[in-house]
Design brief:
heterodimer, A: 369 residues, alpha+beta, DNA Polymerase III, Chain A, domain 2, 43% strand, B: 391 residues, Alpha-Beta Plaits, DNA polymerase, domain 1, Dna Ligase, domain 1, 3 domains, 15 helices, 13 strands, 40% helix
Chain lengths: 369, 391
């Protein structure tokens, strides 16, 4: 195999794939990246058997072939190469690889591509098409609410529900829940379907999507999902199991309803969180006719109290939240104002944009003993 | 720049037969009689401590009460009264505080004092030691053994070696001479099993250990081998830590026979998790990180940790994390296993949960079990799975 590339082209392909490579994988071949030179294209592939990314680049191919190179070191080298013409040549007998740049060269021991797993091919006859910009926004508004606790895999992913004319994305770690709905008429998809996509997959996808250009195409295989972007394909396993009935836990109606500026609440909460008690991290919120008070108290350090102007309807109330859960959501709501709906200090609260119906965040309070 | 290290002056104070002495003090009828603290000799408990009169009959701490009764049927058996001992311990600490604020209590009856900074005020370390001994006798009516050296290991060794009513100074110049002939079991951290392992290798005295190459010790005992190497030379750099903050709560167990059955390990991990959980709840704490420690029969030790999203103190949660960490660890026979919880915070609040009906009922059940145990003792209620572990 022999290819001629620019630094940027090669570096891009490797960088897109490199992140899914797991350093802890017991199969040596999986700590590598597969490079495959075909007809005028170089295909770069990496997988940890849960997620696989395949990136196809137009390339000057002198001789076809394939090799597996160690991901981390290859990534580091290519990133540090000077911006000159790069020639990569692989010995087809022992897979020793030479990377020439200018007068210099680099030698790497490669592995045969034969042992590298083949990513499953998925039928693209039924495809869901979404604008990159929209899907990026959906992921951003939802995925942070997923759990990182591997003991309960269902909560580490996001539920994607495809309906007749909507696509919903839901994630929860059981202490808060984020639900984003997108209206999608003529999404091209005929079936109603719901799947749980691993959080890692969505984070990777979000990283790869530029937010502009062609739409992202989504297709499903048996327990698999594939996202296709121009030049890049991301295949992931789905999480098996039953996502809990999220509709049931979204409160209907409330006793206190307030409207305030997103940014003001975010900044006040961030300041209050500095003095929130370590561990539970909670801030106390008191709502009266006149205003909202946010306070926190660390007995050994000090305390803080802030007042924000609000528009309010209903009962005065008091509630405590984990400040992180508040900050997370306030960072991803893009409207200037938000609505907060509460029903007493022990029931779930709702935070949503003041305009539009497409986003709901349910947050569970902390019971202060 | 050369660093001038000032020699530390450490005193180890260890009360003699503390619980028994306190009982004898509060009830003159017990004076000069064999007193055994632990409880009813027909129960399955062990001796917590016993008076020196009882020791003449061969009764020792940690001996089953039934055995103690067999050796000395006319001994007076008393259940421990911790509130009484705590009070006496407090009085004792008041005396210590007159000499230094750097006090590290090890238990109710034992403490390290760092008096390095107090020497200008009180003269020599020996005179402080003597004074403490006299005042404890005069003001509290109790005897304390005092060990003095320049580090904790040697200070404790000194008080242990001179018990009862002891007073011993290990000077820096003569420490090797002092250490060399001692049995390896005297080294801090060397328990019965390690001692036996050393003896099997014909290593009997501290001198034998000292003559071994560091690498050999490290090959034999892993990271503890390095510590052995230092301790055999009387080197111990642990500082005296006053007002120690609890950083973790853990339990571990060394098996009498190395374990090779996963099922058995799981059960032990459950037992340890329940113990840790109970301790956390008792002290109103919760922790975010669960750690599993495994020591193999070749003394190689591994630890694995998992950090939770939300701090916990329920047995189920600790157990489920610890069991998760246990997976794939049984590569060799295991001699020790431990479960601990780190990253502690006070439990003063409760994050509610969306789909948490299960969790709420779990914590109610745990609370109920805790109340039963508080009232009727630790053995009164337990999990079915742990039932046959005790036998």
């Amino acid at each position: 195999m022999k290819i001629i590339s620019t630094k940027d082209s090669l570096s891009y392909g490797i960088q897109v794939c490199q992140r899914v490579v797991s350093s802890k994988n017991p199969l040596p071949v999986l700590s590598g990246i597969l490079l495959k030179a075909g007809d005028g294209t170089l295909t770069v592939t990496a997988t940890d058997l849960e997620v696989g990314i395949e990136c196809t680049l137009p390339m000057d191919i002198q001789e076809k072939g394939a090799v597996v190179l160690p991901a981390r070191i290859l990534g580091d080298i290519v990133r540090k190469l000077p911006d000159v013409k790069i020639v990569m040549e692989v010995n087809s007998q022992n897979f020793n690889t030479t990377i020439k740049y200018g007068q210099s060269e680099f030698n790497l021991l490669g592995l045969s591509s034969e042992d590298f797993p083949i990513l499953p091919s998925i039928d693209f006859s039924s495809v869901l098409t979404i604008k990159q910009e929209l899907f990026k926004n959906m992921i951003k508004q939802v995925i942070f609410a997923a759990s990182s606790d591997d003991n309960r895999p269902i909560f580490t992913g996001a539920l994607m529900e495809i309906g007749e004319d909507t696509v919903k994305l839901v994630a929860t770690d059981t202490h808060r829940l984020a639900l984003r709905t997108a209206k999608m008429e003529n999404n091209g998809f005929e079936l109603e379907k719901s799947v749980i996509i691993p959080g890692k997959t969505l984070n990777e996808l979000n990283r790869i999507m530029t937010g502009e250009g062609e739409d992202v195409k989504i297709a499903f295989g048996e327990n698999q999902i594939v996202f296709e972007l121009p030049g890049t394909k991301l295949i992931s396993r789905l999480i098996e199991g039953q996502f809990p009935n999220y509709k049931q836990v979204v409160p209907q109606g409330c006793k206190t309803k307030i409207k305030l500026k997103t940014k003001e609440l975010l900044e006040a909460t961030e300041r209050a969180s500095l003095l929130a008690k370590e561990g539970s991290n909670f801030v106390k919120i008191t709502i009266t006719e006149e205003n909202m008070t946010i306070s926190s108290n660390s007995p050994e350090i000090g305390k803080i109290e802030e007042q924000l102007p609000i528009e309010m309807e209903g009962e005065e109330t008091q509630i405590a939240f984990n400040s992180k859960y508040l900050i997370d959501v306030l960072k991803v709501i893009d409207t200037e104002e938000i609505l907060v709906e509460l029903t007493g200090s022990l029931s779930p609260g709702i935070i949503k944009p003041a305009e539009g119906q497409n986003y709901i965040y349910v947050i569970l309070p902390i019971r202060i003993v | 720049m050369t660093q001038v290290t000032k020699l530390s002056s450490i005193i180890h104070c260890d009360m003699d037969a503390f619980y028994a002495s306190v009982e004898q003090l509060s009830n003159p009828e017990l004076q000069d009689k064999p007193v055994v603290i632990g409880g009813n000799p027909k129960s399955r408990g062990v001796v917590a401590t016993c008076s020196y009169e009882a020791r003449k009959f061969g009764i020792r701490s940690a001996m089953p009460l039934a055995e103690a009764f067999r050796r000395c049927p006319h001994a007076i058996f008393l259940p421990p009264d911790f509130s009484k001992y705590k009070k006496a311990s407090k009085e004792m600490h008041k005396i210590f505080y007159d000499y230094t604020p750097l006090i590290e209590p090890i238990s109710l009856d034992e403490a390290f004092l760092d008096v390095t900074g107090s020497l200008n005020l009180f003269g020599t370390v020996e005179s402080i030691g003597t004074e403490i001994k006299q005042r404890v006798k005069q003001e509290l009516g109790l005897t304390v053994s005092v060990g003095i050296a320049h580090n904790k290991f040697l200070a404790k060794l000194a008080s242990d070696m001179s018990k009862p009513d002891g007073f011993l100074v290990i000077s820096r110049e003569r420490l090797q001479e002092f250490l060399d002939p001692l049995d390896v079991g005297r080294i801090w951290g060397v328990g019965q099993k390690t001692a036996q392992r050393l003896k099997n290798l014909n290593i009997r005295t501290i001198r034998d250990v000292r003559l071994l190459d560091k690498r050999i010790l490290e090959n034999l005992f892993g990271s503890y081998g390095h510590q052995l190497y230092l301790l055999a030379r009387g080197i111990d750099n642990r500082p005296v830590e006053s007002d120690r903050q609890v950083k973790s709560v853990g339990r571990e167990i060394t098996f009498a026979v190395d374990i090779t059955a996963y099922d058995q390990l799981e059960r032990v991990v459950m037992e340890l998790s329940v113990d840790v959980g109970r301790h956390l709840r008792r002290t109103q704490m919760q922790g975010k990180t669960v750690t599993l420690k495994v020591k193999y029969n070749d003394f190689k030790t591994i630890t694995r940790s998992k950090t939770l999203d939300i701090a916990a103190n329920l047995d189920e949660i600790i157990y489920s994390e610890a069991r998760g960490l246990l997976e794939n660890t049984l590569t060799k026979p295991i001699r020790l296993i431990g479960v601990s919880v780190h990253n502690l915070t006070e439990k003063s609040d409760n994050q509610l949960s969306l789909f948490g009906e299960g969790e709420e009922s779990k914590s109610k059940l745990t609370r109920a079990m805790d109340i039963v145990r508080d009232k009727f003792g630790e053995e009164s209620i337990t999990r079915a799975r742990l039932l046959d572990v005790k036998d």
